[in-house]
Amino acid sequence: EGIVQEQSILFNMVLPALGRVSSAFTVMLSKARALTLQVIDAMRLRPRSPEKLVNLLSGGNQQKVVIGKWLAAQSKFIILDEPTRGIDVGARQEIYDVIRQQARDKGLGILLFSSDLREVLAASDRILVMVKGKLVREISPEEANERALLDLVMPKTNVSAPVGVA
Question: How far apart are CA 99 and CA 115, in angstroms?
Fold first, then answer.
C-alpha cells in the first residue's frame, strides 16, 4: 500500500527523500540513482535495477521498496504494520535482518505491529502486549514463546456458564 506500483524503484525510493536529491526544484538524477542503489543494497532488493517498475517485482521485493524509501529519507523512526504479510519466508527473514541491522547500526527506532506471533518474536527486542487498547505486559523475546504471547493476548477467564434453569 505504500508504493506507486506503476512507477520505478527509483521514483518510489526518492519520493520521500526529494530534499536529499534535489536543488532549486531540480532532481539531480545521478544523486537520486546513487541513493537508490545504496538503499537497494541495504534492503537486499533484487534485481539491482533502479529503473525496474515496482509492479513487476515480487511481493517481498515490493515490501522492501516500501521500507527502503523511508531509509532513503533518513527517517529516525518508522512504524511497520504487518510488514511481512503475504510474502515468502526468504523475503520475510531478509526484512527482519534489515530492520534489526538498521536499528542496531543506525539507531533507527521501529514500532512493529503484527498479529503474527512468530513475526513478533523474530523481529523484536522488546514486546509490549496490548489487550483492548491497554498495555498488559512487557516481555523480552528471550523469555517469550508463541504460547506465552497467546495467553497474554487471550487470557483465560474463570467464569463458568450457568447450569440449569432458574
Answer: 18
The three-state secondary structure class of 78 is strand
* Ramachandran quadrant class, 34 (left: phi over 0; alpha: psi -120 to 50; beta: rest): alpha
Is there a contact between 40 and 50 (Cβ–Cβ < 8 Å)?
yes
* CB 135 within 8 Å of CB 129: yes
pTM: 0.81
C-alpha cell of 8? Answer: 520505478
Residue 28 Rama label (left phi>0; alpha psi -120 to 50; beta): beta
The helix/strand/coil state of 99 is: helix
Strands 109-113 and 127-131: unpaired
The predicted-structure confidence for 120-155, as pLDDT tens digits, reads as follows: 888 888 999 888 889 989 999 888 999 988 888 886
> Can you name the residues that pair with 138 across neighbouring β-strands?
128
How far apart are the C-alpha atoms of 11 and 100, rounded to whole Å? 26
- Cβ count within 10 A of residue 141: 15
Sign of the CA dihedral running 47, 51, 53, 54: positive
Q: What would the grid cell of residue 50 be?
A: 533502479
